[in-house]
Design goal:
The chain is an alpha/beta fold. Helix content is 48%, strand content 20%. The strands form three sheets. A five-stranded mixed sheet has the order 5-4-3-8-9. The protein has a two-stranded antiparallel ribbon with strand order 1-2. Helix 5 links the parallel strand 4 and strand 5. The longest helix is centred in the first third of the chain and has 57 residues. The termini are far apart.
Length: 230
């Protein structure tokens, strides 16, 4: 056998280019098909995931709307002028308790404010302090009430040198009894909170005047005028 025939016989079985192509084609087809199926499954999963997320978001919105709807069911008691003032017993700044019976036979102003040391509440408390002597001359005691704890009330008193007693109603018992606790809204959200309210109780223990949705500017002077007129 010649050397040329030997070289040809050694290349033809597996070394020829055609043999390599025939081997690679089946392998390439087996590799590309799973890739397509993987992409298809990935596309399906990517389509289904947003639906699941939107379902969760919808359930969260539903729960939040249910929470927001709860305050709407709360109703503010309709206190009217001439009605007997509800009794109360609550702690005050500096220690001790304050009751309605402590002021029997006297005129009494109760101003309910949302939160100690906030701008509007500070101005209101300062205005009543400024007129404290005038209220005393008119035979009228002034009390401030909020849901703040006693420490916050005392800090509020000391910071602004307030001269009116401050009552702490953390359980909202007095606030609810006087209609100063109810539905409020802010930035599109509805919640329960203190409604800025002032009540003037006459010497007979009945409500002489009720102010709701109080505007702070000039309010203390208006209450003093009403107390003087009794």
């Amino acid at each position: 056998m010649s050397q040329k025939s030997r070289k040809k016989s050694s290349k033809t079985p597996s070394g020829s280019p055609t043999a390599k192509k025939k081997v690679q084609k089946p392998g390439a087809s087996t590799q590309t098909r799973p890739a397509k199926t993987q992409r298809a499954s990935a596309d399906k999963s990517s389509k289904t995931k947003p639906k699941a997320a939107s379902h969760k978001a919808a359930s969260k919105r539903l729960k939040s709307s249910e929470k927001a709807s709860k305050p709407e069911s709360a109703s503010v008691p309709a206190l009217t002028e001439g009605q007997k003032a509800p009794a109360f017993r609550l702690p005050r700044d500096g220690g001790g308790e304050v009751t309605l019976s402590d002021h029997a036979g006297q005129k009494l102003v109760l101003f309910f404010y949302p939160r100690a040391d906030t701008p509007g509440c500070t101005r209101e408390a300062i205005d009543f302090t400024r007129l404290a002597d005038a209220f005393a001359a008119a035979g009228t005691t002034v009390l401030g009430i909020s849901a703040d704890p006693l420490k916050a009330q005392e800090k509020f008193r000391d910071k602004h040198k307030l001269g009116v007693p401050l009552i702490s109603d953390e359980k909202h018992e007095m606030l609810e009894a006087y209609g100063a606790w109810g539905k409020k809204s802010m930035y599109g959200k509805t919640f329960l909170g203190i409604l800025r309210t002032t009540v003037l109780v006459g010497a007979d223990g009945k409500l002489a005047k009720v102010w709701r949705n109080v505007r702070v500017d000039g309010h203390a002077d208006e209450v003093l005028a009403a107390a003087r007129s009794l």
